[in-house]
Protein 1
Amino acid sequence: MKEQLEEIRRRALDELTDGASDQQIEAVRVRVLGRSGELTEVMRGMREVPQAERPAIGQLVNQIKRELEERIEALKLRLRQGALERSLAEARLDVTLPGARVPRGRIHPVTQILERMLDIFVSMGFEVAMTRDVEDDFHNFEALNFPPDHPAREMQDTFLVGGGLLLRSHTSNGQIRVMEERKPPLAVVCPGRCYRRDELSVRASPMFTQIEGFMVDRVGRITMGHLKGVLIEFLRAFYGPETGVRFRSSYFPFTEPSAEVDIHCLLCKGAGCRVCKHTGWTEILGCGMIHPNVLRAVKLDPEEFQGFAFGFGVERPALLKLGVDDMRLFFENDLRFLAQFPSLAGGAA
Ligand code: PHE
């Protein structure tokens, strides 16, 4: 039995040469050490071995087992190291290769237009104040002199949030919020999102962006003339120095007198076309002198203070300026669309 074991060991070690492949090593392991391998077979024959010799044989079996296992482990380790070295040598890294391009994000076109507009106002001395989207009836309507039964308060137009709150239907709440906190002189623009229960369509969206602007100072210091000056300056800076501008009298509860401002249709330059319904003009904003009741609502004495306010949507000018013909594109966030406006603000693509 002892000779038989020595024979198994010798044969196994002969085969476990330094150059043995993975498969060869595995074949030896299964044949000798496997569950029905040669060593197991030998152990089965133990019954025939005289009692006195059994411990020595058992020891020998274990010793051979350990010896072979160690040899196999060592050979496998060598194989693994060799494979690693080879793959490192083959897959040499060229650190001078250009890297994979990381797609760069862009500012949304509406935000770019908004920022350009704000820049113009800032250049005229206005400061920018953000107010809130979720508002109460007082700041969105009541303080702005909306009569209690004004149609704009109807659920039809305004999203009600519950608990007496609503989503602001215009940025005019910015006038109230700022004037509640700070005393004139004030020259402020309030950009922000507004919400109305409109269907999303080519020309309208239930969520849109507005810029509110206002200027307040002591009576006599700020007139309708300043309002016209600021707006004409802004419109010519934004749409171009030749842009035709006209003021039409209008009505808003929170301004008196009120006006709407039209600019020459950008497409036909005033000649009249389908887009401007052959009028040659496009309505662009609302404005007026702040109503005395609005000043009273923020505890300013209208005998003492006076000012103007204006407000307009950003998406429509953005459509005109960018030559986009469908408002919905601004809100779908399709990268194929957004990627077409790489550097409006002069930044890199
Ligand atoms: N809030 C008005 C609107 O949403 C615009 C406006 C603002 C008009 C300020 C006059 C003064 O249509």
Note: The chain is about 40% helix and 20% strand.
Protein 2
Amino acid sequence: MPDIIQLLPDSVANQIAAGEVVQRPASAVKELMENALDAGSTSIKLIVKDAGKTLIQVIDNGCGMSETDARMSFERHATSKIRKADDLFLIRTMGFRGEALASIAAIAQVDMKTKRVGDEVGVHITVEGSEVKNQEACFCPEGTSFSVKNLFYNVPARRNFLKSDSVELRHIIEEFEHVAIPNPDIAFTFHHNNAEVFHLERGSLKQRLVAIFGKSYDTRLIPVEENTGIVKIKGFVIKPEFAKKTRGEQFFFLNKRFIKNSYLHHAVQSAFAELLPKDSFASYFLLLDVDPKTIDVNIHPTKTEVKFEDEKAIYAFLRSAVKKSLGQFNIAPSIDFDQEAYLFNIPSKPADGIIRQPQIKVDTNYNPFKVEYIPKEKPSERELSNRNNWEKMYNANKDLQLQQKVEKDEEPEQQTINADWDNDARESSSKLSYQLHNKYILSNIKNGLMVIDQQGAHERILYEQLVEKIENHKSATQQELFPKTFELNAQDFEMVKELQPELEAIGFDIRELGKNTFVIHGVPADTADYDSVQLLEGLLENYKQNLQELKTNKHENIARAMARNMAVKAGKALTQEEMNNLVDELFACKMPYHTPSGNPTISIISIDELNERFNK
Ligand code: ADP
Ligand code: MG
């Protein structure tokens, strides 16, 4: 038998290695931008076409390369950043593996122009599928310009695997931000299909964050700064009242490298502790600086995970630094007389200036055991249809009990339901609802007590209405008298653009106003009481959360997000009429018993159960 093992040709080996380094256009963006940083640039330009599928170009004004280095840079394991194994522990640069250019050149058509500071002429190299196609002297500015065309042109399986432009662009924006945030002393621009996505001047970290995330961040940021022997901490946390329900804005940078670390996240989250609303996450932009000797970034090629020598100490420092800032800026529970005025909500003097003793009014005719008298008039059409719904409510009782029995694997017993309704009893009981803790609606039903979760019920009602509106395009829009602008970060802006048809279907009229901004011209007709910007923000927040948690289509997701956003919240007092309407509309739903996310909306405590409790 002949020997069968052969060394792979470089082009194949590079293509395999590329699979690790370049998963999508955003990975190439990250590598090229990091190279530009390592070259000591003060200005970096990113130009992208078709979400990086057609072109990714990075132009820097860094140190440039000699002719030989330019040629060498495409070889695998060719790097100027380390020379021996020990150097791995001294790394201050972003790159060090010498893999990126070789990988990119294996799966794309690459065009590089570079010139060192002081050199007369530069060099222009074209590489395609690891093969150098052309090399010549050229006139070009100092620095390096790198064009990556037709990524994965020779790996069709990979190319087909890419997501929509909108998704790929969001990944690119994410990588761009990871590089731009910790480097505010470098100017960046980013163009996509000839439109400017970012234009970031040199400035402070705060200015950088505001330039990326929008003007509203100016007043949301609380500075954090702490220098210890082990770690230098610098950056900002977001005021707790602006905390988000998605894990969107959590940025740790270790020696200017974006990292993910759930242990350190916990340190920040716990520093906020009870300041955060339930189910919300702290947002932060924190730059940690440690001696490279005490970390190991060599774990993963994409390098977002890092091993620390002294993780516990860093945890403790981080937590106390954030706590200190929250305290200093009057966010921690210390009373601040300017900000917490509501604690001293003393009623103002009456108009006539005379202060009288408080009086208690007693209705001596009130009899708590008397059932409210409701005159029997001819019922209106609406009332008639309501009655049908209330009948459904009784059946709900039946259905629920049957359901519960089936769930318990018991034989359903028909006799639990008394179908022989007493009309009067139904009417009187149906008209009386009681609100418990501004959260639950209690209704007397024949078989016991029905408890409805007001928020869940409302969510179900709105959800079904919205799904119908989206599918039939028949929602009404109320035009805003004073259109408001809605400013977003670049990623969210892309998302809203993608969702525009669905948003229009539910009644929003929003139009793009240049960079990262929409103008809200109209809102769904039944949301006139809401602040339109808050409404859209909340909608987006819920939508993003759904994206992480569920696999639903866009229509359903939008309907869910909007329903959650608009539903009356626990804590809202409802009038008798509002309660009745809510119950009524709930039972007009196709699936009244659960919220769109599957939580129960109704629970029934049967008379039998109560009897048992009272030993009857
Ligand atoms: P690494 O960054 O890990 O060293 P790369 O494959 O990304 O590996 O780059 C190889 C080498 O090419 C770098 O070490 C650097 O010397 C050179 N290089 C790459 N991009 C640039 C650039 N924009 N400016 C100057 N030199 C560069
Ligand atoms: Mg590199």
Note: Residues 332-347, 371-384, 404-429 have pLDDT under 50 and may be disordered.
